[in-house]
UniProtKB/TrEMBL annotation:
Amino acids binding substrate: 45-47, 88, 195, 246-247
Any GO BP annotation: L-methionine salvage from methylthioadenosine
Protein name: Methylthioribose-1-phosphate isomerase
Annotated site (Transition state stabilizer): 156
Function: Catalyzes the interconversion of methylthioribose-1-phosphate (MTR-1-P) into methylthioribulose-1-phosphate (MTRu-1-P).
UniProt similarity note: Belongs to the EIF-2B alpha/beta/delta subunits family. MtnA subfamily.
Keyword field: Amino-acid biosynthesis, Isomerase, Methionine biosynthesis
Xref: InterPro entries: IF-2B-related, IF-M1Pi, IF_2B-like_C, Initiation_fac_2B_a/b/d, M1Pi_N, NagB/RpiA_transferase-like
MF terms (GO), sorted A to Z: S-methyl-5-thioribose-1-phosphate isomerase activity
Entry EC no(s): 5.3.1.23
EC top class, as a word: isomerase
Keyword Isomerase on entry: yes
Catalytic residues as annotated in Swiss-Prot or TrEMBL: 236 (proton donor)
Length: 343
């Protein structure tokens, strides 16, 4: 797979996911505002990838600060952090990564500004490398839940494209495949922005993992016919009680899975677990441009001009519908998470 995000020649290089699968193109962000805009415009998306990109955006912004006095420098980097934090509201990895960069800034206060600038780049790279390692660990724990011959349904894209590499939900699928299990994947197309059709289908085909694309409203019929054995999805934020915010439509999949007695798993790293948020009701849900619903790719209208639109980008799946949460530390019941991740 091509890298989703990388530090390249003093710029943050992003695979432009808004152009996939028709065009494999990269954009080089040379200032932090461009990084924040790329996150806002879904050029990079998926909770862990947003976090890694945000950390790199902060490091990039810090390089352009001219002050050599720590106090001035830190104030300006703080403003950069605040700006990047406005890019999207739901994925907690964004705030987690920015918080980690801020902590680094404080920890380095005795060093010269030139040294701090270099170390902020290193910290963002560490976050990236850790993210890949977390995904691979999750993959090992999750793969044990999948048996050869099974068909797994996934929603949205929680793959290498949504992380620094390997993926969360698709990391589980990828690990099972790498272990030689003969599995099939059903990818929900995931309206309105079609991350399943455009990204998951493309990503799995790149790795030659068998994938079949369906529209979102077909999942129930397939479950009733016994054609789906397990569901695994990613997460944008997991509250302390185990409620999970993920791409709109995830809740519907969980309800259908429960109705058909099919296990429903969520795969996510510790950076997605937000113990400060008590329940799903407290998770901010992003509302996006109505054009995402009224037109395909913003340019092919599918609804009458002026129609009222509601476009929440995420929904909350209550803990009681979730069979287990696959993390880098193992698989837990939603209610067990807080005890295992309170640091
Ligand atoms: C490993 S990514 C998990 C989630 O971030 C993913 O399922 C999702 O909801 C992405 O939404 P997006 O709006 O594309 O950023």
């Amino acid at each position: 797979m091509v890298p989703t995000v990388e530090w390249k020649d003093g710029a943050v290089r992003l695979l432009d996911q808004s152009r996939l699968p028709m065009h494999v193109e990269f954009i080089d962000c040379r200032d932090y505002r461009a990084v924040a805009q790329a996150i806002r415009d879904l050029k990079v998306r998926g909770a862990p990838a947003i976090g890694v990109t945000a950390a790199m955006g902060v490091a990039l912004g810090a390089q352009a600060v001219t002050s050599t006095q720590y106090r001035d420098f830190a104030t300006q980097v703080g403003e950069i952090c605040d700006h990047v934090a406005t890019s999207r509201p739901t994925a907690v990895n964004l705030f987690w990564a920015i918080g980690r960069m801020k902590q680094k800034l404080v920890a380095l206060s005795a060093k010269s500004v030139a040294e701090i600038k270099a170390e902020l780049i290193t910290e963002s790279q560490t976050i990236l490398e850790e993210d890949i390692a977390l995904c691979k660990a999750m993959g090992q724990h999750g793969a044990a839940l999948i048996q050869s011959g099974q068909t797994v349904l996934t929603h949205c894209n929680a793959g290498a494209l949504a992380t620094a590499g390997y993926g969360t939900a698709l990391g589980v699928i990828r690990a099972a495949w790498e272990q030689g299990k003969r599995i099939q994947v059903i990818a929900d197309e995931t309206r309105p922005v079609l991350q399943g059709a455009r990204l998951t289908a493309w990503e799995l085909m790149q790795d030659r993992i068998p994938v079949t694309l369906i529209t979102d409203n077909m999942a129930g019929a397939l479950m009733r016919q016994g054609k789906i054995h397990l569901c695994v999805v990613g997460a944008d934020r997991i509250a302390a009680n185990g409620d999970v915010a993920n791409k709109i439509g995830t809740y519907s999949v969980a309800v259908l899975a429960r109705a058909h007695n099919i296990p429903f798993y969520v795969a996510a790293p510790y950076s997605t677990i937000d113990l400060k948020t008590q329940s799903g009701a407290d998770i901010p849900i992003e509302e996006r441009n109505p054009l995402e619903v009224t037109a395909i790719h913003g340019s092919h209208p599918v609804a009458p001009p002026g129609v009222a639109v509601f476009n929440p980008a995420f929904d909350v799946t209550p803990a009681e519908l979730i069979t287990g949460i696959i993390t880098e530390r193992g698989v837990f019941k939603p209610g067990e998470l807080a005890a295992h991740f309170r640091s």
